[in-house]
Amino acid sequence: MTTTNDEGFSALKRYIEQTIKIQCSNYKEDYIKRRLLSRMRSTGTTTYEQYIRYLHEHTPELELLRNALTINVTEFFRDTDVYDLLKKEVIPALFHGRKTIRIWCAGCSTGEEPYSLAIILHDIIAMDKTLSGQIFATDIDEVVLKKAKEGIYPEKSMAKLSAAQIHRHFTKLPDGNYQVKPHLQELIRFRPHDLMSGQPVSRFLDMISCRNVTIYFTEKQKDELARTFHAALVPDGYYVMGKTEYLGREVEGLFTPVNSIQKIYTKKG
Ligand SMILES: C[S@@+](CC[C@H](N)C(=O)[O-])C[C@H]1O[C@@H](n2cnc3c(N)ncnc32)[C@H](O)[C@@H]1O
What is the DSSP pairing of strand 205-210 with strand 233-241? Predict the structure, then answer.
């Protein structure tokens, strides 16, 4: 039988904060417990104390635990309707009155999201050589960031890309995987960043896409993040959330909805 006492839970949270550097208190408690129990089941441990001992004795488990806590599911052009709007309206609008734009893709996982944005950006820039842009792509998890930088994806990841997009932006490797071409990689700077740090990756940003990342954050943490994003955006800059995410009551006044179904907002004030 699994013992899940409060003392053991607190000790494990402290251990995680010291070793993996993830601040458990910023995540919903139920969520943390579910993820921990899933790792405990996989390692055959039945109490939090036993699992701490297991982590001490089996250091590779630290990486598996980190993966379980951060959940890295993603895909190219996730939510096609959102990307249609980004392509037809939002990203072209960012260039009104300026020649260069800066986008932050926060919680970028293995890179499919920033590369999808880079495909849109590249196609706009290709039509007008006076335009340029930069995407900052960040994640707390350095393992997924490494994969993102490499930009190598299996064929099954390419489902939402057209044949023309694959041809223009990827090289097929001898092993059947696809490698992102350098012209897309040059548009993106990948770097580690913790969204709980209260610090933006940069300022004067024209758009922030932070999608499917805050679902597990506490309400307080989500509000703080919305304030950080608000401060980091230029006036009228865009904030794109995941379709199941929402702005809390305390911060919804900071943004104006552009499309409240696709969760696209602009900065107010
Ligand atoms: C479900 S993925 C979403 C990926 C992508 N944004 C998308 O919508 O497809 C969530 C990502 O958020 C990252 N993440 C979780 N907590 C974070 C934090 N505190 N700071 C930065 N990234 C975080 C995870 O490592 C994971 O890669």
Answer: parallel
**Domain total for the chain?**
2
Residue 125 pLDDT = 96
Query: Which of 67, 73, 139 for a ligand 1 pocket mutation test, highest count of atoms within 8 Å of Cβ?
Result: 139
Ligand 1 pocket: which of 66, 115, 116, 140 to mutate (most atoms within 8 A of CB): 140
**Shortest-distance Cα residue to atom 24 of ligand 1:** 70
User: Is 197 domain-assigned?
Assistant: yes
- Mean pLDDT calculated for residue range 100-129: 97
Residues 6+ apart with CB under 8 A from 221: 26, 27, 196, 214
Question: What is the 59 CA–ligand 1 centroid distance (Å)?
Answer: 23
Ligand 1: distance of its center to the CA of 213 in Å? 4
pLDDT in tens, 44-66: 999 999 999 999 999 989 988 98
d(CA 64, CA 123): 38
The range of the structural domain enclosing residue 58 comes to 6-70
2 pLDDT more than 80? no
155 and 254 together in one domain: yes
- Residue 242 Cα to ligand 1 midpoint, Å, equals 11
Please indicate, yes or no, whether residues 60 and 86 belong to a single structural domain of this protein.
no
Tell me how far apart the alpha carbons of residues 231 and 53 are, in angstroms, rounded to a whole number. Answer: 43
Per residue in 168-219, pLDDT (tens digit) is 999 999 999 999 999 999 999 999 999 999 999 999 999 999 999 998 899 9
pLDDT at 1: 41
Using alpha carbons, select from 267, 258, 268 the residue that is nearest to residue 82. 258
